[in-house]
Specification:
Structural class: alpha+beta
Number of domains: 2
Radius of gyration: 25 Å
Number of strands: 18
């Protein structure tokens, strides 16, 4: 296969991955706390000894948008939305994780947990416990939890020191390879949740663009294949 064929194939593979990414964004457009994802295309050019250079296009680097999503009022005492920077710190069987999804509930033991049952951690990294007999707690903008006039705890709000260390894990969870730090300027809003920061219209438009680009590449490969077949037939007849 010639250089143009390899280049087109690698481009097709990247477009297929982007189509999957865009489809996932659209599917999660109503998922609380979801962050839109995209792909970064890059080109690698290598000179071949005694021949033309070989160009390969790849799309393996994923880029996550951390733009603020719109806030929706739910009135739930345990629903929290972050306004500004920061992530909730969650305890999972695989270690601590970060998320913007603040639709929490209470476990049978009184721990504040996610809908998947993972415990929410406080500013010191310990699980947040709400005594069962306290009723609906009040949560201030800095995450302080109080009930019946007494302080119960404080929900932690953190961010990675290097945002590039964050790796998506599941729909709304992230893990970080580096250190995290407390966020002091972020605000929590009780009775609200943050919607996905996905723009469905732009994502659908991008899906159409990717599909057309893929079809164009496939047409080129079909034409190239036909050209090579015609050339081989001509050689065999001569």
């Amino acid at each position: 296969m010639e250089t143009t064929g390899y280049t087109t194939l690698t481009r097709q593979a990247g477009l297929l991955r982007e189509m999957q990414t865009v489809a996932n964004n659209i599917a999660n457009a109503v998922t609380t706390g979801y962050r839109q994802e995209g792909l970064v295309f890059s080109e690698h050019v290598t000179r071949v000894k005694d021949g033309p250079s070989v160009s390969m296009a790849t799309a393996n680097v994923r880029a996550t948008s951390f733009a603020q999503g719109t806030l929706t009022q739910t009135g739930g005492a345990l629903d929290l939305a972050i306004e500004g920077e920061g992530f909730f710190l969650i305890e999972t069987p695989n270690g601590e994780r970060l998320t913007r999804a603040g639709n929490f509930t209470l476990s049978a033991e009184g721990d504040l947990v996610t809908l998947d049952g993972h415990r929410v951690l406080d500013a010191g990294g310990a699980p947040v416990f709400v005594p069962p007999d306290t009723g609906a707690p009040g949560i201030s903008s800095d995450g302080t939890i109080s009930a019946n006039g007494q302080l119960i705890g404080q929900i932690g709000l953190v961010r990675p020191i290097d945002p590039l260390d964050m790796i998506r894990e599941g729909g709304v969870m992230f893990r970080t390879e580096g250190e995290t730090e407390p966020v002091l300027e972020g605000r929590m809003l009780q009775g609200f949740v943050e919607n996905a920061n996905v723009d469905p219209i732009s994502q659908i438009a991008r899906m159409v663009e990717v599909q057309r680009s893929y079809e164009l590449g496939q047409s080129f490969l079909d034409a190239e294949n036909e050209r090579i077949r015609d050339a081989l037939k001509a050689l065999t007849r001569s």
